[in-house]
Amino acid sequence: MTPEAGARAALQRGDLHGAAAAARALADSDPQDPAGYFLLGIAAAEAGQIAKAVPLIEAAVERGPRAEYLAHLARLLILLRRDGEAAEAARQAMALPPGDALTCDTIGCVLARLGDHEASMVPFAGAVAAEPDNLDYRYNLAAASGFTGRVEEARGHYERILAADPGNARAHYALAILSRQTHEAHHVPRLEAALAAAARPDDALRIRYALAKELEDLGQAAAAFGHLSLANAAHKRAIRYDFAQDAAIFDAIEATFGGAGLADPGPGYQGADDAPIFVVGMPRTGTTLVDRILSSHADVGSAGELQAMPLAVKQLAGRHLAGTPSRLVIDPATVAASAAIDPRLVGEAYMARAAHQRPQGTARFVDKLPANFLYIGHILRAFPKASVVCLRRHPMDTVWSNYKNLFASLSAYYGYSYDLMDTARYYLRFDRLMALWERLYPGRVLQLSYEGLVADQEGQTRRLLGHCGLGWDAACLAFHENRAAVATPSAAQVRRKLNSDAVGRWKSQGEGMAEVAAFFRAEGIAID
Prior knowledge:
Layout: H1 3-12, H2 16-29, H3 34-46, H4 50-63, H5 67-79, H6 83-95, H7 101-113, H8 117-130, H9 135-147, H10 151-164, H11 169-178, H12 188-197, H13 201-217, H14 221-239, H15 243-258, E1 277-280, H16 287-295, E2 300-302, H17 308-317, H18 332-337, H19 343-354, E3 364-367, H20 376-382, E4 387-392, H21 395-404, H22 420-440, E5 445-449, H23 450-455, H24 457-467, H25 514-522
Parallel strand pairs: 1-3, 1-4, 2-3, 4-5
Helix pairs in contact: 1-2, 1-3, 2-3, 3-4, 4-5, 5-6, 5-7, 7-8, 8-9, 9-10, 10-11, 11-13, 12-13, 13-14, 15-22, 17-19, 19-20, 21-22, 22-25
C-alpha cells in the first residue's frame, strides 16, 4: 500500500493520528507532492482544526490543483465564512476534469450554500451518475431540482430515495412541501406508517411536519394542528429555547438605537450608486414573493438570503467587544458593541461579502434575508441610498405560518417558532421594533401589506417599484414566470399566479389560535 493509500485508508476508518502520520511522512519524503499536504489538511479538518487545515490544502493546490483539493478547500472556506474565496475555489474545481462522486457532491454543496442552485445541478448530477445508490447524493440533487423548478424530476428522486429507505424523513418532508396535496394524490397513509416506525426524534419531527402540511392541504385542520403541537413541543424542549433569549436582543437594539446620536446616517458607504434593495420582515409573510416581483424587473437581480449584513456587523463589532466575543452572530453584547462601528465600514464589509452572490448583469440587487429587520439601523446608516421594504402580514396568519413551517431546525433565528405564544411574543417585539425604525427614519422603510398586494397587485407593485427608485416594468406582474431558483418554503407558491389562498388561513384553526388572539387583543394588536 502506498503512503497516500495508507493515509486515505486511515481517514476512512477514523484513525486521524495514523492518517496525519502517514500524510506527514508523504509530505516529508516528497515536498512537491501535493497529496501529503492535502491529506494532512483533511486530517486536521476532521479533527475540527479548520483554520489549520486551510493553508495545508492551499499548499496542495499550489503544488498541483485537482478538483478534489479545490472542492474541499471551498468547503472549509465556507465554514470559515470566507464565501468569496470559497466561490472562487468552487469555480476552479468546476473547470477541472470531474473527480469522484464525493468531489462532485462537495462542489454542489458549496454552490448551494452560496445560493447558486442552478449551477449546483451539474455536480450533483455527476455525483448521482457516479454512485446512483448513494441516497445522500440523490437527496441533494432532488433538493436542487425542486429549488430550480424541476418539480417532477425532484419528485422522482425523492420517490427513489423512499423506495430504498421508506423511513427517510428528509425525503418525506421535502415531498410534502414540493406541491399542494389533493384528495386524489397525497401521502398521508405512508407518512403515518413512517411516523409509527420513526426511532429518532429528528425523524419524527420532520414526518409530523409533513403530515401537518398534507392534512392542512386536505382540509383536516384539527389533525394538522395535533401533529404540529406534538412536534413543536418536543423540539422546543430539545433545543431548550427560552423567549428571554430573543427578548434580550430586542431590548439591546432598542437601547442602542433608541438613544441619541445613532439615528443620523452620516455619509455611509460611498462606493457605488447601485444601492442594494433589502426585503425584510418576519418569515412567511411574502418576502420571497416580493423578491420575485423585484427580480423580474429588467434592472434587478436577486442575491437570495445573504448573511452579509449580520456577518459584517458581527465582524466589526468584534473589535469593540470586551472579553471573549460570543460565537453567536447576534446577541446583546454584539448589538451594544455595534454602536461603535463606522457605518462606512459596515457598507464596505457588506458589499465585499455580497459581491460573489449578487447576480451579474443588473444594476441593482435584492437581499431578502427576512431577519435583516433587526439590522435596519445599520443598513440605513451604512447605505443612505438603500431601499428597504418590510413585509407586513396579518398578525394571526404570521404566527400560524411561522408555527407550521419547519425552518432550519438548529438555527437560532427561528427558535421562537416552535411555540405559538413565543411566536406571538416575537411578533409583538417585531412590531414594536418596526415602529422604532419608522420614528428614527421616517419614510425610509416601505411597510408593504401582503394582503394589500394580493388585493391590488398592480397598484401595490407600482408603489413598491416607486419606493425602490425603479421605473415600471410589466414583467413584475408575471413574477410566476421568473425561472430563477427559490430555496425557501415558498418555492411552490411563487411559481403560481398571485392568489388569496393564504389569506386568513389561521381561521381554520379555531380553538388552537384562541390564546394568541386574546394576547394580541390585550396588547392592542388589531386582528379583527
